[in-house]
Design goal:
The complex is a heterodimer of chains A (318) and B (281).
Chain A: H1 2-33, H2 42-47, H3 53-62, H4 69-81, H5 95-131, H6 134-149, H7 152-166, H8 179-213, H9 216-224, H10 228-265, H11 271-280, H12 284-312
Chain B: H1 2-15, H2 19-42, H3 73-108, H4 112-127, H5 130-141, H6 145-172, H7 175-182, H8 187-223, H9 235-242, H10 251-279
Helix pairs in contact in B: 2-3, 2-10, 3-6, 3-8, 3-10, 4-6, 5-6, 6-8, 7-8, 8-9, 8-10, 9-10
Classes of the chains: A mainly alpha (318), B mainly alpha (281).
Amino acid sequence: MPYLMKSQALRILIGRLGRALSVSFWVMVISFAIMRIIPGDPASARLGAGAEMEAIEELRKTLNLNGSIFSQFTNYVMGLLQGDLGTSLQTGRTVIDIVSSTLPLTLYLIIFSTFFALLLSIPISTSIAWYAKAPIVYVFRSVTAVILATPNFFIAMIGILIFTVRVNWAPVFGYDPQFPQNLKYLWLPILVNTLIMTSVISRVLFSSVTETKEEEFVETGIIRGVGRRRFFWFYILKPSMAPTVVLLSYMMGTMLGATVILETIFSLPGIGRELVNAVLTSDYPMVQGILLIFGVITVFLSFTGDVIAYLLDRRVKI
Amino acid sequence: MKLKTRWANFKDWIALPGGFGIFSGLTMLVIIIILGIIIPNFGPYNSDDFVGEPFAGPSLKHPFGLDQLGRDLMTRTFSSVGVDLGVAFLGVSLPLVIGTVIGIVLGLAKNKYVLSLVGSLIDGINAFPLLIIAVAMLTFLGSGLKSIVIILAITNWARYARISRTRAVIVSKQNYIEAAKTLGYSKKRIILKHMTPNVSSETVAYALSDFILVIIIISGLSFLGLGAQPPTAEWGSMIADGRAFLTESAGLILFPGLALCWSAVALSFIVEGISRRDRGI
């Protein structure tokens, strides 16, 4: 019987991996198609009305816009397999080079805020859900609802208003990549992100702990007199974590989108600001490449989230 | 006598789960919509007129003060209501209709190839964070509120289609659909009269919460300079403009930001109230 269980789990996980790969393929198709489905020729649009035919032809060649759509796609995929995402029209650097120099900062931003958010929301939501006093629950729900309905750029602006304009604790412009110095620039964006993440995570954790509380095994645990610590981690938290992990993986994807705005506000040299610059300068290969990277990261995150959730709680359907 | 009964009914309705949330959310929404109609149209100033010294503080004539060009901030803040909520309404209702229809068609479709093709297209589109794909498409469509509506229509439908498809598959197996078939109703009548209302109740519920997300995305894109173009008064772009003048006047970002929060919070109270009423807690 245990053997059977194991092989079934393996089959489910492999099936989920297959889905992740097929969605990745479609992510690739979409980032290929995005330049081509819009009416009009992107090459002449970028060069403007007075451009010469040769220049347009040259750009079309660089952008891989010549030949049939099928051969364009083959070229694109072959390029991707060799790690070639194209070359930035603005700076002449390869897209992969720019991505690998800007992506780490963005990932740090997201990982640190997720970590702090988990650290805060686990005690907050479990204690509120466990003791469930009506007025506190009400305040908790309203406060998190208000934070969630507030756009991150407004929260960031209020942060700047308090910490930069009133007291000069956080510089808004410039960035220093050296380790201890960069914290001076990073703490405020991380704080803003953490605040938002904490309200999302604690809401979901709150409702799943409330549900877990009603389960029979929790009652059994109380009756059997399981130790406090063990009771908290294995009877309450572990079964409640599955929905939270799924949400977390989804939220980290959304956070990637949100960092586009945060990095622009705090002028941090991350991939999000790079995307906005590319959009403002019509740097098509950059936009296409960053879009692909974002899509693949999101697919990978949601795959990981589903797998962890399944390992935590086998009842989860993935 | 009658009035009292109505009042009692109302009190009972509020006492039901989520009633207070729905009521306060609706009230907040109605207040800002009314202000958004009255102040720009019947107020003393025009949102684009220069009426005084830049950065003038709040006064009796200009309760919110003046902005960096000397325009009345209150008029500008409230004339954004129509822009933001209007664009968001379009940006929600177009995908809602498109997605629901596609979802129902998919739920009924038998052709395996079409199903898996459109199904994976939906998964592929949903894989991207909405803000990212919107920013990327703006490169090719050009900035502006019109582009944002088009982009929301061609990308956001996929989220509705996923919900509507799942729902359509469930609904099509219900007994009342079988009954309608047995009664010999036409396919058109079954789809329009029996399937669509039951499927769309789910997608409309999602649309309400999506409304908040879409408002945030519209103002966020405008904040990045990719949405509303000057001199259009729009909350996101007003906050972006106010960024450079934080030391002169904090009101430039606070008033538009608070109006934006007010609308989003109103909607989220309504959404939460409705979902609590559905769950009955």
